[in-house]
Amino acid sequence: MITWGWSGMAHDASLAVFDNKKLTFAAHSERYSRIKNDKHLNSEIILDALEFGYPDEVFFYERPWLKKTRQLYAGQYNLLTKPSPRSVLGKLYNNPPRVRTTTHHHSHAAGGYFTSPFDDAAILCIDSIGEWETISIWTGEGNRLKKLWSQSYPNSIGIWYSGMTQRIGLKPQEHEYILMGMAAVGDPNTYYETIKKDFILKMPTMRDGKTIFLRNCHRGCMNWRPLLTSVQSYADIAAAVQRIYEEIFLGLIRHTAYLTNGRKKNLVLTGGCVLNCVANPIAHTHFDNVWIMPNPGDAGSAIGCVLAHKSEHIDWPGPYLGHNIKGEYPVEKVLQQLQTKKITAVASGRAEFGPRALGNRSILADPRGDDVKDRVNSIKQREAFRPFAPAILEEHASEYFDGFTGPYMQYTATCKDPTSFPAIVHYDNTSRVQTVAKTDNTGFRKLLEQLYKITGCPMLLNTSLNIKGEPLVNSIEDAQRWTEKYGVEVCLPK
């Protein structure tokens, strides 16, 4: 039985393929079209998916008719004429099966829980908006999901955070991670009380998780304090927004624990908002174990909508599920480039499914050089306040970092020796750590092992391999274009 799951038609379309219970393929449409956050499927991703078999059944990640009721309420009349999922798929694939749907948050909850190592867990889903729900809390027991509580539009933490992203001159639904990074160089106290007074009527409590907003930021909030234009004021706004988000997040964690009577030791976090790696360590204040799939946003619901219908755990294969650049990982070539130039890039194996480059579509650099960060920023043409992540051998992580770490760059931890590793340390001495275990990506793991033997350093700076304004490199042709543009060789498989 070949099953397809897909998400899209709003933003960041993706497609997943299951062969019975085995997840064999998952990829973002943008990687093929080269259009960032592309909401449409395309013939190229369909062709890659068909290599794993023709679909016997297809699932979609939300209920279009239910979403249209919210769009009507919100006055988004131009969106009411969107075609049906089956008609969209029919233009790319002849005579597709009937497309079955589930609700947006059910897809999130199922994608998080059924890919987790837990058979008993609380589940907290936070995103901007699905059909109506913006936050939901569930339990997972065995193969059964049960929804305990939810919050609905227009009260949305995600919409508010995106609105504030737009207010400081960034692109909403795309640049929220930049606001998160900018927060470290701002003073949260400058606008903290003002933002709470102007936007928030009620914060969540242990017994009542609802956050009530004074204004709906769905269409942005550029009219809020229009005279604020300085770079520092924007950084101060970012810092205050991040602090308030963390306070709301803590309230939701407490409410989740309260609704489950504190009996759940395991927590699944899902939804686009849990890409906020600065806030995520807060979850461990009330739960022993936390799972976040590497693609918890809407794109990951291409997996989640299938699992919502199947209601069964799968053996998680890891995030390397996309387009395959075949061949042996170029360990020796990368090492040579690092030793001579300190900076290189690699495109090898299956592409990562998710927003993070995890070693297969990465710019790599020595984290110890004083000038390395500036050189990488020059290549990527990005602002100095944006942090870089380290990839480190899992068994050495605690030697260099205090705090929670994991394989998918989902937490920030404090660097114990920031002066020795300036390229991967942010202004607040934190790093978004990727741990690489012996059972993880074997090529990337071997590279780090060889590097450690040669230099005594068990980590590398690891950031996304992409042309500015484009998604991550997908194919050999994309890698060659990148080399031509930036003059740095991309190491390809042998």
Sheet with most strands: strand arrangement: 21-17-22-16-14-23
Return the CATH architecture of the largest domain.
2-Layer Sandwich
Q: Remind me, CATH topology of the largest domain?
A: Nucleotidyltransferase, domain 5
Strand content: 15-25%
Number of strands: 23
CATH class descriptor name of the largest domain: Alpha Beta
Shape: globular
Describe the protein in words:
Helix 11 (331-341) packs across helix 14. A 6-stranded mixed β-sheet has the order 21-17-22-16-14-23. Strands 3-2-1-4-5 form a 5-stranded mixed β-sheet, with helices on both faces. It has a 5-stranded mixed β-sheet with strand order 8-7-6-11-12, with helices on both faces. The chain is α/β, with parallel strands linked by helices. It folds into 3 domains: 2-105 and 300-317, ATPase, nucleotide binding domain (Nucleotidyltransferase, domain 5), CATH 3.30.420; 117-292, Nucleotidyltransferase, domain 5 (2-Layer Sandwich); 322-491, Carbamoyltransferase, C-terminal domain (DHBP synthase, Alpha-Beta Complex), CATH 3.90.870. The two termini are 35 Å apart. It has 15 helices and 23 strands.
